[in-house]
Specification:
This protein is an all-alpha fold and 193 residues long. It has 6 helices and no strands.
Length: 193
């Protein structure tokens, strides 16, 4: 289980850094090239992040009951990424809807995981907050996907940065929890010798 927690922490770090990078990149796009650049950047992001979500889900089958949902979300990301890169003219509306659905999915999973880990990890409220932000963001995107790509781009950038930061904090919490377990084991070993 500790190995799985270490891998989960590593994947959270990688996914968090990817989200931060994506958010900063989206917010830095020149206005005239936003849609085209967003499709290209998002296509690559969805492929890479989807692949990490699938791998993370497969590595979490023993410790995370909802691993199938995470795997399906990752698989959907890979499919949407391929679609965005091969059909850019049709992709912008689909991307906005996908991000909305994915944010809802991710939010529900984050809240569920935080509730399950509340006795093992300190600061689970950060994961709950991350889940609530994801749910609200997803609902906003699904409610008004066509109301100005600029607004959606701004929200996507802010969302990606916020979620990336939350994932990095959660990875730090898991790392801290693992360190406490190691210290406890060493203390027990030292007392028995």
């Amino acid at each position: 289980m500790l190995d799985k927690a270490k891998r989960t922490s590593t994947f959270l770090i990688i996914r968090g850094l990817l989200s931060l990078f994506f958010g900063v990149l989206v917010l830095g796009l020149p206005e005239g090239q936003v849609a085209a650049a967003l499709i290209w950047v998002f296509g690559i992001y969805a492929l890479v992040e989807g692949a990490f979500a699938c791998v993370g889900a497969l590595l979490s089958t023993d410790t995370f009951d909802d691993w199938v949902l995470l795997f399906l979300a990752g698989l959907l990301g890979i499919i949407i990424g391929i679609f965005a890169l091969t059909q850019p003219g049709k992709a912008i509306f689909i991307i906005v809807l996908y991000i909305g659905v994915r944010a809802l999915f991710t939010g529900v999973l984050e809240v569920a995981l935080a509730i399950r880990l509340r006795k093992q990890v300190q600061g689970e409220w950060l994961m709950i907050l991350s889940g609530i932000i994801s749910i609200i963001f997803g609902l906003v995107l699904l409610r008004c996907p066509v109301e100005g790509v600029q607004l959606v781009v701004l929200l996507i950038g802010i969302y990606a940065i916020a979620i990336g930061a939350m994932q990095l904090v959660m990875a730090g919490q898991i790392h801290h929890w693992l360190r406490r377990i190691d210290e406890h084991k060493k203390a027990l070993t030292g007392k028995t010798v």
